[in-house]
Amino acid sequence: MSTGEDISLKLYHYLSKIIGSDDVVKTRQNIFKVMDFVMNDNDGFTFISSGSKAEGIDIKGSDFDRMIVLKMANVNENMRDATYPAYGVFLLMEFTDTPSGFTKLKLENNSQKRIPLIGQCSQTLGQETYISNKLFREYFLLPDMIIHGPCQSLPGDVYDRVVCFRCKTWIASAQPWINRSQSTWPGYKQYRLDACELTASSLSCLTYPTSLINKMTGNVLNNFIRAITCFKSCSDPEVCKYIIALDSIRYIHSQKLYNIREQNKSVYKQFDITLSCSRFGLFSDALSYWLLLASFMYQHKHFKECIDIVVYCLSKSTPDKIFLQVTNSLEEQTVFEKTKTVFGLLVTCKHLIIKNVYFVYPFCLLPAELATLSTNIKTIVIPPVVYSNVLLFLCFHHLRDAKGKADAIHGLELTIRNKHFIQNLRNLIVGNKCLDNVKNFV
């Protein structure tokens, strides 16, 4: 007969296959800690990642939850415990005619309605003024988001955020939670632990930070600088460097391109910053960052330098590399984990991982010859080897090298035919569009 301890161990190993090991869960948690640290150098807001993903549990159906706490006001249950924030906005809880677990927020000083947020989100009922839940949610609603319960959400259940005020004391209804028993455990029950097909490794942790960084708001350069500062105090320096690498690409995409031949201070400053960001980017997968640097060189008409970078990228695009995606195979996860154990996260990402190359609106780094790909979309994703051959062709075209153009076309056709690092139908469609575009220049 199995003992309770045996059942607990079996359950632990079963859940580890689905959720991930301690190391995997900690890696996910550290990613969100770094993200919050970067975002929280802000006088007006405190960003708190929450939900299952922030706790390190990433299973099918998990979304990204974030609380955005406004520092401009403080909520109190009664006047006795009242504390007044620097901005002087004071809100008092009122539980009259409210369901259990809900409260009204009453404005004690009507002169505070002169503050735009308070004035636009409050309603007066009789002699009292309250914050309107509906108006408050709509006030912070972005054009591409929808109202979902108390949250503003992106369609598809991928991101929920709730803007809120903070009460700094434990209210009466929450007092029992402070002294709750934490020693009890549900009675043992015999579970049938079948073999689990799902697996979880820290490889899967690398698939979502890019999308999280793209949702970060505010000044891109300031976020990038805070990410670098964060490295000094981060509990996991490798995770922090990985986040810096991802944030650096966002900064590169945000830069306006100048004509390098103008030879003025703005040009040289931009050139120096971009090269520095590219060096940070090497802490993530190296190839997509090298290809962005090649795009930067191409836009500045440094065609020979662009060719050198692309040839190097093609030499590293070998079948032993792991193309990062949400559903990497068990074999790929095993190789990644073993390599990471020996060499660490950053070296493994740099030499083992390959990602798609992506461009964001206003597509400053995208060659003008591929402009037809940007119709009515804000992000263009191109398979790495496809883009390498496209850049080679365009460079040889400008250098009037007919043989080089023919070789690049041949390489592009082989890449599409063999689906080399082309993972899905969407990638294949983009590859064929790229091929059609470059053939117009033959």
Give the tags.
single chain, 442 residues, alpha+beta, 2 domains, two-stranded parallel ribbon, 15% strand
Tell me what you see in this structure.
It comes from Mytilus coruscus. This is Mab-21-like HhH/H2TH-like domain-containing protein. With 442 residues, the chain is α+β, with helices and mostly antiparallel strands. The chain has 2 domains: 4-167, no CATH class; 204-439, no CATH class. It has 17 helices and 13 strands. Strands 1, 2, 3, 4, 5, 6, 7, 8 and 9 form a 9-stranded mixed beta sheet that branches. Helix 11 packs antiparallel against helix 12 (303-316). The chain is globular and about 80 Å long.
Could you write a compact summary of the structure shown?
Helix content is 46%, strand content 15%. The protein is of the alpha+beta class and 442 residues long.
| String of helices and strands | HHEHEEEHEEHEEEHHHHHHHEHHEEEHHH
User: How does the helix and strand content classify structurally?
Assistant: alpha+beta
Q: The biggest beta sheet, please? A: 9 strands, mixed
Strand content: 5-15%
- The N- and C-terminal alpha carbons lie at a distance of 75 Å
- Rg is 26 Å
Organism: Mytilus coruscus
Protein name: Mab-21-like HhH/H2TH-like domain-containing protein
